Here is the input.
Amino acid sequence: MARFKFNLLDIFLALFVLLTGAVVYFTFVKPISFSNLILREGVSGYAEVEFILDGDLDWLADKIPEGLESKNIYGSVDWKILAVGRENLGERAVRRIKVKVLLTRESSGLLRYGKYTLVRGGKIVLINDDFLLEGRIAEIRLLDEKILI
Amino acid sequence: MNLFFLQCQLRTSRFADFFRAVLTDHASLEASGLRRACQSLFKTAGNGLKPFPADDAPAVTEAWTRPKLLAGLCLALVWAAVFIPRLSLGGLAGHYSLDLKAEDLLLIVLSLLFWARSSGAVASGPVFRIESAFLLFLIFAAVSVVSGLTARTLDKPLVSLLYLIKWFEYFLVFALTARLSQRPQTAQFFLKGFFWLGLAAAAYGYFEHFYPLSSAAYPNYYRLYERPPFHGDANHIGGLFAVWLAFFSCLYLRQPLTPTLSPQGRGRIQHGACSLAPAAFSVPVGRGSIAGQPAVFSLGSTGFPSPFGRGQGEGAVVSWILLAAILFVFFPFIGTFSRKSYFAFAGAYAFLFFVPGISRRRWIFLACLLICAGFVLPTRLAERLSDLGEVMTAVDPFHSSWAGNLDVWGRCFWNFDQFWLGGAGLGARHRLFYESQYVMVLTETGVLGFGALLLLLFVPAVYAARESAKQSLQGLAAAAWLTAWAAFLIHNFSCVSLTVSKAAIPWWFLTGTVFGWLNSRETA
Here is the structure.
């Protein structure tokens, strides 16, 4: 078979130039929407979560400093304590903690913090090197803060 | 039907002809339009850069590798890829974060210099078949983006384009290193640079071990190389170490090259072996060597004694130094707590047993030494490996990383039959989603891209396997590369090592160095 006279690099570069034009068009004009034909990773975001601290950890509530946070290895805030309050549920006094958490919104719409699904009544555990806070979720509110990919 | 007959059939078959025609053995960079564009750009700018003389191909490569600056720049690029953290330039279009990396800038400078000064004479050789396989993969990766846009499985095409540029960068690292390394001195300079790269990364590991950047409450592991200047890179640096350890273990274990060479031949090989050495480890060579050449990595070759008491000379000292270097890197390697990297190195080490010319006695000695060092000393290696059975049998993807991988891979192949040929498009998902280079390439670039990736991985391996049997320094380098390849191949099963620059750039640098040297017509 005779040798073809072509340069693969030039073919790639020609494709690349065409692709660059297409990509600029598809990125800024956005003529198509995602088809949902593939399952993908969840989208990261922040939410304010309020949870009731487990009763056996009540003694810890007064020792939690406001602004206490835990960062992940990329330097992003993983969770941050926004407020620690007291509340009466009937005759029982409980400790309510408001926290900002880095969550993942899955394509199904579920919100997850690590392995915990964020739903009201769901369990949440926050750990850093000084504290382990465990409780049941009372409220969840998604924040607008964007995380760049 | 014997082997010879089969080889003849393969040589004359149309199938093999087709591959030889597509994976051409001609250099692509020199014949590319980019070279002409680059040169006219420099001419317009009045730079006055003169191209190198175009008498013949080896002369071109020799001429353009002459400036030590280019070789230094290439080595700096690899070091920058491992050590210099990315700089954030902010966001784009509200979704994308733009990062600047030092190696990107260095590569641009290096490429421009190459194209501006290349004479355009096209060289040929087996190394350029690897280059062609790389380009074939890049073409199918570009086709996959079109496929993804058509199937609407890509909604962030800019990310895909950036991935493609990153792969093109890896191609350039390989292609430029291979050209520079056709000069044996440069190849050996690069290998020394790679040797020191592993030691420097390990030295940083010791520093971080003794001065940790944060605390990790027991039973959590404090994994090295996760925090700045690194960026969650324990697995990637673990992969780099696995490759490094495999490569230098092979150098350490290789038997004496040939004791029956003529005095002239002995001298030549000895000279080459010596020049693989890091200068700081060099010791003067005694009688029978080329005057003034350091003797490192000779490992008992050319008549030097081994560390097992077959004599007492500089070769033995060198062997001990190399053994010490392997041990020095081994502990930070454990400190990554990257099980996939452990398996990669263990697999490569087992593979090494079957590499021709390996000293089986040394193999057993080194294996025992590493096992004792890992399990007897307080390294937590045993603890890290002891829960493996539980990890492999657990079904909760949030509890077991293996179950998590299976879960993710199952999700990757959902609807795959709808775009099996061209794939869902490069960059269809975040790279960290996959935890496997092969799953990533297969699902993103389809069967076409995956086939091209297999060619890219196996074409050099076949070439290296053929060369590794030769009793020469190039043969030694080929055998060592083959061992490193085995480590990298295993590592890619559960890590996207060919995508992440901290593992991929050193890998393509090492590959370019070894194959450029193998392509050289000069004997070391």
